[in-house]
Structures are given as C-alpha cells and as structure tokens.
C-alpha cells in the first residue's frame, strides 16, 4: 500500500498549499517519484490531471469564500492564483456555470469538487495474467509527437496520430523493422511537460541495429518488466487494464514502478477486435 500512502501524502500537500504556487516537482517529491511518473499515476487513478484538480479545488474554495464573505472579487482573483479579475471570472463561469457576481447574489447553483481521498479497491475479482521478464537495454524506433493532456485524464491527438501513420504507410514500415522481443507496434508515453500540460507520445517498433535516418530512437535501460495480457478491443481494454494495474495489481504485489516509460504493445493483428490479445509492459523494481 506504499504507493497509495505516498500518493495521499502528495494530495495532502496540494491541499495544504492550494493558495501557493507549487510545481509538479514540488508535489511529486512528496510521493518520492518523478514528476512524469506522479502525473501518470494520478491521471490513471483519478481520471483528472494534477493541474485540473488544483484548478477545481481552488475555484471550489473561491466560490465558498465568495458566498460567505464581502471580499472584493479582484482580491479573490489574485488570492486564488489568477492574474486578472477577467481570467478569474472566465474560469469561475466555466466551472460553476455562473459569474462570480451572480454567485454572490445567490443566483444559480455552484459546483463543488471536494478534497480527494485515495481509496484502492482490492477485490481482485478479475484475474490478471502477467509475466515477469528481465531484459537488457533495448531501443525502439519510430515517430514522436507532443500531445496535450485533457482535463479529465485523457490525452488529445493520439487517435489522430495513429490515423496518420496508418494512412501514410509508416505503420507498414515500422512493422517491417520489428526484429526483437516485442512483436507488435508500440504506443509509448514519455516526458510530461508541466508548463504545456503535454506528453510525448511515440508510435514505434522495437528494433536492433541502426534504424532509418528519418525515424527517431528511444533507448530503454536494463530493467525488470511486468508484461500484462490485455484482452479485448484496445480502445476500451487498454484503459481498463491500466486502471486495474494501478488499483489492484501494484498495491497487492511487492514491486514499485520505475520511471522508465511504459509500453502498450499492439501484438494482435487486429487490436480492435473484441477478442484481441495485446500487452502492457511496465518496468518495475
């Protein structure tokens, strides 16, 4: 349960510093992991990004203060981290559906996002098939694109990226480059950018040797990996598998996730079919 406890410590830290300027690095230190790994874990478990959680909580507190005090709206805007009353009003209306002035007059209903408490369900009703694999360093080659993170834990642009590489023949090229252990095209998330709220997403293939000059390469260090079987159509089965890994498998086993990018391996000839069999590769220690 160490992962859950450290994640809760980070959430408690965010709550204690809601009115301060805190960075992802500040928050992730409380959980003793890298900013990228913390953001990934947080989004998988909560379906919301860290930045969106902070925004929702600050605007919840701002609405409470607005309703219960006579403080000036301009002062509340600066108190809760906005550069101007206009920016505050825009964000306030987006969350609550009413302007700050209307909320002060009791017009409309306010939307409250309460303090988050992580509780992991350890039912284990659905079995998970996995294999522990020790691997030396290896590389993948492919294309990388910066994709923005959405407000609800999703990442925009990934389906369109796959559509492009399918249409322009890159998928076929990558398939022909596969010459090592992971037999399938790979989807890899890496390098969370706090300032832009984005991640690097790779569409790649494991390849030994020199890759084509027009493709980028990503190196993976020697590590221990857990390889999970993912059954079902990839668009729904992959998110469900990730949720189960983080809410059931990790808290129930003696491993910690490392800061090596995780890999979704589309090993089925048709990852979209209802009975498809694909994989998730997660580096652990």
Question: What is the structure about, briefly put?
Answer:
This protein is an alpha+beta fold and 285 residues long. It has helices spanning 2-16, 24-31, 35-46, 50-68, 73-79, 85-96, 100-104, 158-167, 170-177, 234-252, and strands spanning 130-135, 138-148, 185-193, 198-206, 216-220, 223-231, 263-266, 277-284.
Write the topology of this structure:
Blueprint: H1 2-16, H2 24-31, H3 35-46, H4 50-68, H5 73-79, H6 85-96, H7 100-104, E1 130-135, E2 138-148, H8 158-167, H9 170-177, E3 185-193, E4 198-206, E5 216-220, E6 223-231, H10 234-252, E7 263-266, E8 277-284
Antiparallel strand pairs: 1-6, 2-4, 2-5, 3-4, 3-7, 6-8, 7-8
Summed over residues and divided by their number, the pLDDT gives a mean of 90
Question: Largest beta sheet, briefly?
Answer: 8 strands, antiparallel
N/C terminus separation: 15 Å
Number of domains: 2
Order of helices and strands: HHHHHHHEEHHEEEEHEE
Write down the CATH class of the largest domain: Alpha Beta
The fold-level CATH name of the largest domain is Multidrug-efflux Transporter 1 Regulator Bmrr, Chain A
- Quickly give the structural class: alpha+beta
Can you give the helix content as a percent range? 40-55%
Any idea what the CATH architecture of the largest domain is? Alpha-Beta Barrel
**Proportion of β residues?**
15-25%
Number of helices, where a helix is a run of at least 4 consecutive DSSP H or I residues: 10
Radius of gyration: 22 Å
Superfamily (CATH H level) name of the largest domain: Regulatory factor, effector binding domain
Number-wise, the strands total 8
Overall geometric form: elongated
